[in-house]
């Protein structure tokens, strides 16, 4: 997660949970496909209960070493998640959905909607990146290869708000950052969210 994504995440929390009015705000957050827990440090200040779920056990071992998560669960995010309906205030899945075949990604989204009561946030590349060498690059994790590409229209059909981060071609600075935010189909990465129950 880069500085732009962190800023957007903080803004979404402020907007949907009135964080600016409640500086002590603490949420139950699910980090879906948490991997090694690299987003845990960003999510922890907002959480009273930070839970991560991933299928690759050695990645969860690394996440445990960070000592940020209240609970880490080994599980398949494309099937029924082992949580009660509406248990989490917010669920995030950063750079995860592209690692699933399309049908499994759709199942993950349905499950996130089931276990979340307010806000779901995702990010995914806006280009096809097969990452054939990903298994070796990520410590032998067979789940790191990209298996699907998600487009703006895929998320809009499911009533997600879609924005873009970074230009597909070149660097995003100044006005181009605003342009990609408003025209996500020219962006390098999609940042999407859905507000539930309201």
Notes on the structure:
By secondary structure, this protein is an alpha/beta fold. The protein has a domain at 3-18 and 81-195: Vaccinia Virus protein VP39 (Rossmann fold, 3-Layer(aba) Sandwich). It is built from seven helices and seven strands, in the order αβαβαββαβααβαβ. It has a seven-stranded mixed beta sheet with strand order 3-2-1-4-5-7-6. β4, α4 (102-115) and β5 (116-125) form a beta-alpha-beta unit. The relative contact order is 0.15. The model has no long low-confidence stretch (mean pLDDT 87).
The general outline is globular
Low-confidence stretches: none
Strand order of the largest sheet: 3-2-1-4-5-7-6
User: In CATH, what is the class of the domain at 3-18 and 81-195?
Assistant: Alpha Beta
Number of helices: 7
Sheet/helix structural class: alpha/beta
What is the CA-atom radius of gyration, in angstroms? Answer: 16 Å
Task: State the CATH topology of the domain at 3-18 and 81-195.
Answer: Rossmann fold
- State mean pLDDT (0 to 100 scale): 87
Q: So, CATH architecture of the domain at 3-18 and 81-195? A: 3-Layer(aba) Sandwich
Number of strands: 7
Largest sheet: 7 strands, mixed
Spell out the CATH superfamily of the domain at 3-18 and 81-195: Vaccinia Virus protein VP39
Q: What is the strand content? A: 25-35%
Distance between the termini: 28 Å
Helix content: 25-40%
H-E order: HEHEHEEHEHHEHE
């Amino acid at each position: 997660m880069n500085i732009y994504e962190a800023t957007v995440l903080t803004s979404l929390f402020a907007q949907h949970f009135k964080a600016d009015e409640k500086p002590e705000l603490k949420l139950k957050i699910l980090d879906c496909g948490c991997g090694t827990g690299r987003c845990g440090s960003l999510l922890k200040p907002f959480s009273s209960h930070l839970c991560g779920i991933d299928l690759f056990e050695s990645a969860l071992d690394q996440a445990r070493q960070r000592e940020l998560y209240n609970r880490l669960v080994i599980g398949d995010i494309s099937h029924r998640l082992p949580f009660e309906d509406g248990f989490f205030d917010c669920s995030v899945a950063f750079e995860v959905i592209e690692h699933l075949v399309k049908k499994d990604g759709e199942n993950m989204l349905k499950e996130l909607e089931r276990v979340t009561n307010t806000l779901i946030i995702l990010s995914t590349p806006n280009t096809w990146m097969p990452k054939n060498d990903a298994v070796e690059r990520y410590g032998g994790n067979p789940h790191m290869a990209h298996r699907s590409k998600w487009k703006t229209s895929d998320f809009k059909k499911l009533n997600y708000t879609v924005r873009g981060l970074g230009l597909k071609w070149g660097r995003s600075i100044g006005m181009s950052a605003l342009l990609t935010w408003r025209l996500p189909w020219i962006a390098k990465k999609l940042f999407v969210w859905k507000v539930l129950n309201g």
